[in-house]
Amino acid sequence: MPSPWVPLFRNYGCLYDRIVVFGIFAADMAKHLILLFLFIASTACAQGRYRPGEVVPEPYLKVFGSERFFRVAPIDAELRALMERCSVKSEKGVDWDGLRYLQVLHRDVDGNAIVGEMVCNAAVANDLMEIFTALFESGYPIEKMRLIDHYGGDDEASMRDNNTSCFNQRAITAGGRPSKHSYGLAVDINPKYNPYYKLKSSGKVVVKPETGADYLDREGDFPYKIRKGDLCYKLFKQHGFHWGGDWASGKDYQHFEK
Ligand SMILES: [Zn+2]
Prior knowledge:
Layout: H1 15-45, H2 58-64, E1 71-74, H3 77-85, E2 99-107, E3 113-121, H4 122-138, H5 155-160, E4 186-188, E5 196-199, E6 205-208, H6 231-238, E7 242-243, E8 251-252, E9 255-257
Antiparallel strand pairs: 1-2, 2-3, 4-9, 5-6, 5-8, 7-9
Helix pairs in contact: 4-6
The structure holds zinc ion.
């Protein structure tokens, strides 16, 4: 079908014909402009549609960048209600104003860009934003990053699912005093492949998650393994965190705390 634009430039002797052709041309242009506007508007609104756990398509990131997915926010009423049902076991000791909700992007081992989320202490929010931004930009693999509340506050379930998390009001794994997770000052990265291990004086071996025994051999080659000196280790150390893999008594390879 010939374009209606071409006759516009021909030498028509009749003014009426020129007006008709110009009208066709203007209508065609308007149609294209409307379609362009609808495309831009729908794409710009798409950011809100990508929820935690969802993959963000690469073409979207190429056009609009990844920055819009990285944000820090206070704990709103809806999130607080969720946390009070799951990760907060007692009102005592929770400083709501001192916690922050983080949203970031992370890449899994296949390179997919995924929306991640985390609740942490405000004192480490900027550290974690810098660390997770650097990990995302370098393609360091993190499989999942959902709130522990997504697992009903069950740390074992979260670890078995290889979910990276931070805030969870609970005692340290050995029992007794509150864990730094209770204050949002500790992060567990890819926990399924970086388990907690401790040989008790009774001779009993404790492994968390309980399904993580296959990954206690740190010489083994498997995905999501944190190595001393790798990018994840370096970034957390640069920001003043301690790594559980350096502990003398037992090992907590998934754990970074400040
Ligand atoms: Zn931990």
